[in-house]
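Teaching assistant here, posting this on the class forum so everyone can see the example we discussed in section. The complex has two components, and the goal was to see what a joint structure prediction looks like when all of them are supplied at once.
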Amino acid sequence: MSADRHHTGDEKDLASQGPVDVEGHPIRDEAQRSPVLPGAAEVAQRPSRTLWGDAFIRLRKNKLAIAGLVWVVFVVVVTLSADLWVPRYFADPVSTEFAGLESPSADHPFGTDRIGRDVFSRVIYGARVSLAVGILAVSISVLIGLIMGALSGYYGGLLDAFVMRTADIFFAFPYVLFAIVLLAILGPSYRNVFIAIGILGWPSIARVFRSSILSVKENEYVDAARAMGASDLRIMTRHILPNAIAPIIVYGTMSIGGAIITEAALSYLGMGVQPPTPSWGMMLSEAKALMGPAPWLTIYPGFAILTTVLAFVLMGDGLRDALDVKMKD
Amino acid sequence: MLKYVVRRVLQMIPVFLGVTLLLFMLRIPGFLPGDPIQLIVGERELTPALRKQIEEKNRLNDPLPEQYVWYVSNIVQGDLGDSYQKGRPVADILTDKFPNSFRLAFAAIIVEIVIGILAGIISAVKQYSFWDVLVTLSTSILVSVPVFWLGLLLQMFFGIQVREWTGGAFSLPITGMGDPPDLAHIILPAITLASVSTAYVARIMRSQMLEAMSQDYIRTAKAKGLTERVVVFRHALKNALIPVVTFIGIDLGFLMGGAILTESVFQWPGVGREIYLAVLQRDWPVVMGGVIVIVLIVMLVNLIVDISYAILDPRIRYGGAAE
């Protein structure tokens, strides 16, 4: 990934990143640049496009990524508007007013569960938990990861060694096991699930951001900014972050899918969201004993997890290609 | 080479101490739900004398740094404490369960190697063909499938549906290991456990293979008049395999540490399920002892992978490994 493709297009940044004369003023006159590329004048007249503009154009061409985006938007709209139409035309997700274990029909598109709740309505409301946990958990990971990655990548030295060894400790733990132990300490609840998943996710983000910083911070425009007396914080937020953020966006998008799967797994094991809040993972654990007589209880919630996670993975793949980020496997 | 091995082993020490420190903090009363002494006593009546005896045995009244040294030296000597629930040494319980997890891990690794590598090679050699699209699509889907749901679907299909269709003549067992353990019981759990990693193996294999096939030495080999088969298997595959083998090695470490989800779905009596049950029963010594051993296994397997990597690729030995 070449760093100079990651300009923000911000005038101020360009000033500090472009060539400067002896007094530090940016050289704007084309004639002063050497060597002058043939046709440079025509190129300069093309409306400027930022990295993000380029990326968006590339992303639009990627059908799978757009399909993922459409599905995510669809799920968000359906689940956020659920109060308006689901209880009225289908059923309340926690009411137990129906006959138990009815197979799917027009009244109950996904059937009913053991104690007579409507599975369709529970799947739709379950999306709230999954999306909220996915987004909140990844936000926590990204926040911690950015700070830790910045500290270790920018300052290096002992701090770097300390942060990276701490990350190693996290990587040595099997993920689900670590999450379960954490939840045993914090106590299983909706809030603690995203806190636990968030805490577990930072080392990967920190590593990605650290290596991204390492490749960016050697650029001349960073030296130039420093020479002009910019503070560390300003250099980091104005010059390094915009040029090092692309891999984080890609990684974060994919991580939302991972966080949704983890939430489902924890709830399946009874360590996550507690009843009666509908969650896809918990629905699957309730379905297990009824696999024979009521397969719909297993099929629909699982399918909801699969499609939603897949949508985030496809979006992440698309962003990776559009932003031209190289990921290590 | 020796220098590299020594440096790599020394790197493990802070990680090990960090992990034990993290787990040690859980021993401090008040950190975990439930009074540890009450949990040890269980149904028995807790007299002051009994409380004192337990506190002394577990050094609960010593200063914390001394407790930590005592705790780590016990671990190093293989003493992981006694289970609250069963009263047995944790080390004995784990010794019973680990072989079962190893069986499952090795079965899963075989699935990964055979299916993952084959799919990756076919996908790369016949790029953009029907098979390539199929492999790319199914790996994307496979990494998005929750493992436990895949397990449930397999149970539903091979355990219940197939039995109905064949009138009870054929079905695969869906719980336990069998008594005595047999092949039929391990098929579904192994596929479930291997699923996500197989998809990753296929993906890495494909991209590595495509990269290898675009190298100059491949063009030279083709120009020399070697057949496609020889070029693919002798020249490209050898170089493309290194990252794949690394991935499989690291994965083996994690698989051997037990698989909580797969073992729970299939009621496989492995160490992952044992730890999960211990969490539910607040049997903390089993949880912490299990975690320590698993982390050690993961670190040890990673060490072996890194060393064999350094043997295969000399560049690693000279500084490259630091990053």
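For the discussion questions: The interface with chain B takes residues 165-166, 168-169, 172-174, 176-177, 180-181, 184-185, 187, 257, 261, 264-265, 268-271, 281, 284, 287-288, 291-292, 295, 298-299, 302, 305-306, 309-310, 313-314, 317, 329 of chain A (CB under 8 Å). Residues 2-45 of chain A form one domain. Think about how each of these relates to the inputs above.
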